[in-house]
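pipeline: protein-struct stage 2 | run 1193 | Lipoprotein
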Amino acid sequence: MKFHRSGTALVGVLLCCSLSACVGGLPGSSEEPKEPAGATSSAPGQPAVDALLTQAGNAARSASSVRISGELSHEGEQMRLEVAGMVDGTNRKSSVKQKGQWVEVLTVGKKTWVKPLDQATATAMGLPVVVVGKYLEAPTTKSGEVEAMDARKLLEHFTSPGPEQISKAAATLTQGNEQGRSTWVVTQKVPDGEAKIVVSADGKGELLHVSSPALGTLSFSSWNAVPAFPAPTAGQIYQK
């Protein structure tokens, strides 16, 4: 069974909302780090904030796979996001829950399947209730509606220079610990509270968390260690 056009559009809206919520970006780029005006200098034994964030950005963009999860805020609406798989999008599983609708997208190679996870979502897609929990093959469109969300696009939003780079303003750097793993925590005061970026302190510079009052929180894990997802079996695909 193929998607109704309205169903494809709904998936695109949900996934594109998740991307637009990420605009602003994680600081750091492939350029040589520069000392910004007003940035705090690092203490002995601590990396410079710019250098740390540049390392995290470069490590993220060069990764092969990652798991991303979190709660985001977009135009006053809360959204639950899960993305896992290859950064290049060739093998990934993603899910978005927003505005009472919950959808999963699975890509294996050149094929993509979409699974409505509740009755409200199936109804909004113009699909029968029996489709809930079953995969439907999604069309490949030039606009990339269904394929709009992958780890690489999310990482590009978070690791490309943007207007709200934390490294362009005074920031504090402190040490932390997460499940026995040493971390660096970059904190910046923002109008509605504090924005934080947590990076591993083991020399790998792996991005672990990004949070701000306006954005919400995203967690990053399983860098270069997400196993491949298999294509759905015949029993998992909706048969009309």
